[in-house]
Amino acid sequence: MTDPKATEPTPTDPAIQSGSYALGALSAEERAAFEAHLAGSEDARTETTGLSDTAVLLGLAVPPVTPPPSLKASIMAQLDGTPQLPAVDAAPAPGPAELRARSRWSQRPLIALASAAAVLGLIAGGGIVATSLVQQGQYQQQAAAIAEITAAADSQRRTVELPDGSATLVWSGELASSALIVDGLEPLPGHQVYELWYIGEDGARPAGTFTADGSQTSRVLEGDMRAGDVIGVTVEPRGGSEQPTSDPVLVIETA
After folding, report:
1. Where is the Anti-sigma K factor RskA C-terminal domain positioned along the sequence (predicted)?
2. How far is it, in rounded angstroms, from Cα 151 to Cα 161?
């Protein structure tokens, strides 16, 4: 009779590390092993994309709230009246593995806990494995940029309704950066794309292109955002235009 425990995955089995990978919680060695696993498994790529999208969606599920100043005073007052345990012997110095773990947690915070916007999964589906991994890196860069914007001290957001969905812009003046999250934009023919624009007193500045399929997707705008810029989206020929050639399908004001 087969021992069921003999078939149970170990904690380091790449097959069960998709969640940790999506949150950036693997060591360099674990990440390399998992990416090798991704290269040979379409199911793993699809699962990892879904988990990454879910993680950043959780961050957007609740509007950010600024705690009242009284909260800190209340906590400190409780600490002052809390008996302290006697001092214990100093713990041994952390080893190399623990230092690496601490570094990962300080340098790569969990996106699920940041007020991150949802981003488009780029690695789902087959295709050339090398291309998928490159796209995965692009996805992670987008997610990291959105997390940085939403975590900024001056981060703001505005949502407008679309005929079949909504669009949310998140931006930070300090970072001069913004990202658009859209849901419900209809797909375009292959020869067209949606193009983003920063629109200021001196006219429209191109800020990148994206495609849509009616589901939720997102895009970090290229270039620097200026105070008072309006963000617009137009339909343009594939490859984008230097100036808008159609009326905007979406406009969001930031001032």
Report:
1. 113-249
2. 24
Say which DSSP state 16 is in: G
Q: Which of 151, 184, 205 is the last residue of a domain?
A: 151
Least confident of 124-138, 158-172, 178-192: 124-138
Domain ranges, residue 237? 155-255
> Which H helix or E strand runs over 21?
helix 18-22
Q: Read off the pTM.
A: 0.52
Question: Cβ atoms within 10 A of the Cβ of 170, count?
Answer: 24
Tell me 118's DSSP state.
P
* pLDDT exceeds cutoff 50 at 220: yes
SS3 97: helix
Cα separation, 161 vs 117, whole angstroms: 17
Phi and psi for 192 in degrees, rounded to 5? -130, 155
Using only C-alpha atoms, the chain has a radius of gyration, in whole angstroms, of 22
Number of domains in the chain: 2
